[in-house]
Design goal:
With about 260 residues, the protein is mainly α. It is about 80% helix and about 0% strand.
Amino acid sequence: MKIINALVVIAMRDLTKLLRDKGRIMASLIFPLVFVGVLGNSLNSNLSADVGYSFLTFVYIGVIGQNLFQSTASGLISLIEDRENDFSQSMFIAPVSRYVIIIGKIIGESMVAMVQLLGIGLMAFIFRIPFTWIQVLGVASVVPVVTLLGGAFGVLVMANLSNQKQANQIFPFLIFPQFFLSGVFSPIKHLPGYLMVLSRISPMTYAVDLVRSIYYLGSPVADKVVLNSVQTNLTVVLAMTVVMVGIGTFVFVKNEKNR
């Protein structure tokens, strides 16, 4: 019960901060709307007839995975903010494992990403994205897994940064290239050698492909838009999450002790 209470308190703190930050809520809706409405519709108008599937749907499903991953990962910048305010040291003297504290932060930002996803879900009606109930339930079932991967990536990155200025400069450099390497806006089954390597080591690739592999499961166009099976994506995502949380938490706690 002590562990559960600690997780709930830490997680709810981040969710409460979101609900008080109207600007962040608006931004979380505007960017996906631009990606899907402008880029998705543009690609759909020009390419769908040639490739044999809806590019608007392709981009929309990719944006779901991208937004869940990015929102959770970028939310972990609050670790740096807490460190600068000495709030993290206050948490680390609590009689619970350091891993519980970090996991609580990840769960909190995962909840934030899920709240933001509700707005993206409404876009499915606006742009008439076809969804069956099986697809809705399937995508919903992997949402927590995708957010945990984003949180794990965020912890690993933030553990190696010392202040918010560094985080604001370096983190976008690590996130934005993954938009294209992970195939959010275009298929990545065939890439030049060096881009293929970068794409396959990008964590966001497996977050996006996991959501797509669920949505397109059993579809005749699945071979054109999905890289790996659901089982392969899920295995890679879980393995990456465990490794990055383990390393990131170890490094973060070590840096806190050395302050």
